[in-house]
């Protein structure tokens, strides 16, 4: 059994105790003792699960859990709690996948971790399937983008923006939603970064082509529009 698990906890002794339990089952553990450190680690590498203290320094209530589940660093989240049912309800409502007492015994902890990883990995199999929209092909596993049989060279951020739009094909995506997912902003900062990157995508995907995939929906946001949907309008 293997997997990369990020544990974010204030209490170093408790973190070591949980780490020893997790490592005994063959998982690789990375530790953070503050929200900012956890965010840095997630930007630097990929993890299969986040286990976090409900009292983690730097976290206001469970706002970070909510941002995680709406952002690009999606992974199963287990909250290690202290205050029982009210705290558990708040964590789960924010988007945590499970809530466990920090004093949970080893057998139950490992069973919950294993079951959650199995469920999440099963769901991710579908997220790795190739996406075909007209003459556009996106391969999430290789991160390759092809249009009209020509490879399109995208930066990481351009690719993440395109993938987000493609997974919501024919749906209007607001600037706020795009900022939250692609840039991990949980509020509108007034930046025009979304408009700039949409322009980049248009230059690379649509310029010189009859069918324009990227559409502006005035007053609402942007849409990636499939060719067949236009003919039915």
Automatic annotation (TrEMBL):
Residues 128-226 form the OmpR/PhoB-type domain. GO terms for biological process: regulation of DNA-templated transcription. Residues 4-117 form the Response regulatory domain. InterPro entries: CheY-like_superfamily, OmpR/PhoB-type_DNA-bd, Sig_transdc_resp-reg_C-effctor, Sig_transdc_resp-reg_receiver, WalR-like, WH-like_DNA-bd_sf. Signal peptide: none annotated. GO terms for molecular function: phosphorelay response regulator activity; transcription cis-regulatory region binding. GO terms for cellular component: cytosol; protein-DNA complex. The modification 4-aspartylphosphate is found at residue 53. Residues 128-226 bind DNA. Keywords: DNA-binding, Phosphoprotein, Transcription, Transcription regulation, Two-component regulatory system. SMART domains: REC (SM00448), Trans_reg_C (SM00862). It comes from the Bacteria. CDD domains: REC (cd00156), trans_reg_C (cd00383). PANTHER family: REGULATOR OF RPOS. This is DNA-binding response regulator, OmpR family, contains REC and winged-helix (WHTH) domain. It comes from Paenibacillus uliginis N3/975.
